[in-house]
Specification:
Elements (H helix, E strand, L loop, with lengths): L1 H31 L2 H40 L1 H28 L1 H8 L9 H11 L2 H17 L4 H5 L2 H13 L7 H18 L2 H6 L13 H34 L1 H38 L3 H38 L6 H16 L1 H16 L4 H25 L1 H27 L4 H28 L3 H22 L3 H7 L14
Helix pairs in contact: 1-8, 1-12, 2-3, 2-5, 2-6, 2-11, 2-12, 3-6, 4-5, 5-9, 6-9, 8-9, 11-12, 11-16, 11-17, 12-13, 12-14, 12-15, 13-14, 13-15, 13-18, 13-19, 14-17, 15-17, 16-17, 18-19
Amino acid sequence: MERLTKNVKLVSLGILTSRIFGYIRDVFIGHYFPTEARGIFFAAWVIPNSFRRIFGEGALSASFIPIFSKYLCQDKEEAFRFSSITANLLLIITSIFVIIGMALSPIICGIVAPGFVKLGLIPLMSRTLNIIFPYISLVCVFALIVAVLNSLSKFFITTFAPTMVNLSFIGCIIFLCPHLPEPTIGLAIAVLIGGVLQIAVQIPSLISCGVRYYPEVSLSHPGVREMGKKMLPSIIGVSVFSINSAVDTIFGSLVGPYAVSALYYANRLVQLPLSLFGTSVGMVSFPTISRYVAENRMDLARQTLSWSLRMVIAVVLPATIGLMILGKPIVSLLFEHGKFSHQDAISSYYVLFFYAIGLIFYSGINSVTSFFYALGDTKTPVITAIIAMIINICLNLVFLKPLSEGGIALATSIASGVNISLLLVSLKKRIGGIGIKGIGRTFLKSCMASLIMAVTLLLVIWFSKNLFFQVGWGIILGLAVYIVIGKILRISEIEAILARGKKKTRTSDEYR
């Protein structure tokens, strides 16, 4: 597990770099763009992002990596040929969707943001969407490159590459947007430029790994046919998550453009710990689990999943408490200036609080779902995701009136909790032990350390009303207290993160 921990650190470093520039981007957007303009762009961006998750990072990776890993074990050149054919087919399919989407953009915008119709915002949203739509093809190719490089144990560059999108935003906001009659269009142009750049920076890594490109299109290739069979249920499953995002935007638009903006900024803050560790752990463990399953080494596959969940708990649990307590000063410090008002900050924190409740669920779903994909089971995640989607929609209807935009976030958190619970129960029935004792032990110890950390954060806020003091010293002291208590309680996952770690000999009952 030491190698996996090292890879997680590299992935987290790459993601952290990207997130830092991402927050700079969001600060610029919040500073220079009024609430209405931000709401229009964020609502338009939801649509290509949904297709990205469906055809790119979600269904494609889930069905591609296990098959590509199998080919790597047998014939590396055939694996590269398979990846090339997949890339070519992907470009053809996504290009068709792009053309159809651009033709129907006014209708799509009216469906995704019905609250914007009466406000007369659909025409600008539609023009913005038309410029962004080709990003779908670019980001799907990017996702395939990521899948190939991750399977070859190249992780840092794949997580650093999205930084190019953020740099593109920053550059366009400074140099392009002020000169356009509709500055929102400049944000859409930034998306396209960034999509090209994040592909370009990965090409040297592909070359260094000896990856070859074959200009070939074939529907009869065995790998393509196998992937096609697995991808359809994966598309349905990932579509459910995308539908959930669209549902949040739909309900948010009914509240108003400020709610769409608040949902975006709150989600961005939740994405930091989620991406730094939830996503990175899943990204690193998926190829490893797929390889172990392909080699029929199920004990090691189960241990890898148990390690993944324990690592997620040890890091994400304190992050959850931290966001709930320090969320308001963090939002105000980062974004409350320029055209980002105090009311925008209050609304964003309100949403953030409810999103944070489900952070540990969002973070764990990726690893658990990946195990099903490695087993070749794409149906179970689809079923649980559909159940979660129905629950999310119903809870949105229940919570929207009493809790407004906060109810949208709470519904998402509860639905995610139901989703991962169903997945874990199903997985345990299928493969047996998944390390419940070890996971439970890490959870209890992390809860104890997090509670003591929470007291520290509350004291920091009580002693000073200065935002820099609250955020800066809150994070430093809170992290220090959690680490010290974690060491006292012997939370081995914390020790593994802080150092290279020592090999631990675990008794077999941890994996029952």
